[in-house]
Write a sequence for this structure.
């Protein structure tokens, strides 16, 4: 595929996030039972947890950035939002931006961060914003029905420190935490190329009792990002 604009690229991990509406699409959440317990891992500034809790789900979010004080986190999120949107516009040809989709995505990202920031102080005090990180968390096995992790694993696969061993350990951890299943989206890298070690990671997961399945989802904002990886088992 010949695309003239530069590929989407960031120099470091961004504290960025998306809305419940987007989560429903790229994680195919139409099958979640009412009141399910959900953990959003590497959640960044996503508003999913705040929105899901308002709907009666027992949702929590986990991210290392939540260890920051509120003022520092707000500054980091605003800076990363500007950085990500700037790069998005520079590489817009690599995204499905027809019929105003690009502008709508920008508005949704803004809505997500604003909703998250409005909820963070309350959520931190109530214990549903957890400061922790992959590949190993301090949470109990099968602590949640569903575990979600979006726009982190595989996407940052070219970054130093996120090698195959990291991804394998992180996938095992997500599976360990999920009583029903864990879902990871997308399964391609930031440049739109397939994550090169996906098959090897899946084979090693299977050897340790974690079954994996690729499922097509009704979402493809970044071109080629139309599948999620579903993990089951590994928490006996």
């Amino acid at each position: 595929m010949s695309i003239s604009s530069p590929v989407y690229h960031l120099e470091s991990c961004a504290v960025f996030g998306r809305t419940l509406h987007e989560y429903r699409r790229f994680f195919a959440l139409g099958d979640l039972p009412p009141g399910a317990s959900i953990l959003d891992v590497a959640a960044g500034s996503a508003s999913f947890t705040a929105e899901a809790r308002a709907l009666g789900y027992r949702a929590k979010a986990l991210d290392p950035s939540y260890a920051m004080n509120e003022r520092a986190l707000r500054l980091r999120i605003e800076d990363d939002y500007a950085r990500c949107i700037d790069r998005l516009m520079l590489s817009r040809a690599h995204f499905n931006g027809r019929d105003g989709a690009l502008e709508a995505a920008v508005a949704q990202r803004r809505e997500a961060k604003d909703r998250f920031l409005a909820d963070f102080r309350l959520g931190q005090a109530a214990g549903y914003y957890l400061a922790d990180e992959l590949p190993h968390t301090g949470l109990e096995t099968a602590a949640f029905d569903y575990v979600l992790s979006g726009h982190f694993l595989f996407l940052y696969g070219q970054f130093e420190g996120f090698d195959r061993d990291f991804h394998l350990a992180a996938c095992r951890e997500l599976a360990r935490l999920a009583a029903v299943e864990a879902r990871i989206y997308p399964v391609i890298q930031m440049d739109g190329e397939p994550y090169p070690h996906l098959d090897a990671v899946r084979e090693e997961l299977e050897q340790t009792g974690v079954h994996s399945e690729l499922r097509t989802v009704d979402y493809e904002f970044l071109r080629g990002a139309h599948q999620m990886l579903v993990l089951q088992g590994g928490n006996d």
User: Anything to note?
Assistant: The chain is about 35% helix and 15% strand. The longest strand covers residues 178-185.
